[in-house]
């Protein structure tokens, strides 16, 4: 569990993180979303004790990071810039981290296996592809078998296979009961991965809710029928509001999809399509953060 309480960070004139209060719960993947410059990395650095809050506080499992006796066993973090000695092999890199944190060498082979790098363990980390470096970074976060995991933009630059691998891994870690916080500026990707979404813009909390609430915005039901004129009349009589969509489809509000289906069946109206309309998550995100993008493309 991670708890933020009025967390604030000011760099001179810039209020990078502005009074953030939210809780990241165990057993779930929580997506931490915001446009570039929203304050995600700064927030993560404060969670990890790498940056000092101007005011407010943050705890991991009830304690400030600096008070954790064995941090690597409590929190694993993959930040954007990973420091890996380029001439050291993947195995030696992890063994060094394990030894300096009192973790048994045995765990090194285990985490290499977990991330699929057993075969590449003897190779120099400096020649790793981006995907392999990312796996090595994740192996390091898992070394101490921590109950809390932070990933800052973990899918940036990865190919589809790598993206899928990370998504599956994060879901698996949450299913084991761990607390997983993952930052991204890609709403679509987060929709597939996260159970909950915390959205920030210009350092401020914009939304904190289950992922489904962002997709299910009650935008009506899309209906396609060759009898559109007649069916529109019937729908209006049944108390619905109807407007024309693209290509002759009807957008119906005020009635549910099952209500509309039943009405069509009763009246013998053929339906070619009947689907609740969901605003895409990407649209919902743009809408939420419209006023809080630091540098808009049009400016
Ligand atoms: N060390 C620093 N000194 C001064 N300003 C900083 C510092 N670190 C971050 N900032 C500023 O704080 C704001 C938030 O930056 P941050 O990197 O946390 O955002 P982000 O949401 O992680 O963005 P991105 O997706 O681009 O990484 C930005 O305006 C940034 O320029």
TrEMBL record:
**A GO MF label:** ATP binding
Q: Which UniProt keywords apply?
A: ATP-binding, Nucleotide-binding, Transport
Taxonomically, which superkingdom? Answer: Bacteria
Please give one Pfam family short name. ABC_tran
Signal peptide positions (record): none
The protein's matches in InterPro entries, at most eight in alphabetical order, are given as:
AAA+_ATPase, ABC_transporter-like_ATP-bd, ABC_transporter-like_CS
The segment(s) forming the ABC transporter domain are: 2-227
Which PANTHER family does the record cross-reference, listed alphabetically?
Answer: ABC TRANSPORTER, ATP-BINDING PROTEIN
Which family is it part of? Answer: Belongs to the ABC transporter superfamily.
Name listed for the protein in its UniProt record: ABC transporter ATP-binding protein
Q: Native species of this protein? A: Nonomuraea guangzhouensis
Task: Provide the organism lineage as a comma list.
Answer: Bacteria, Bacillati, Actinomycetota, Actinomycetes, Streptosporangiales
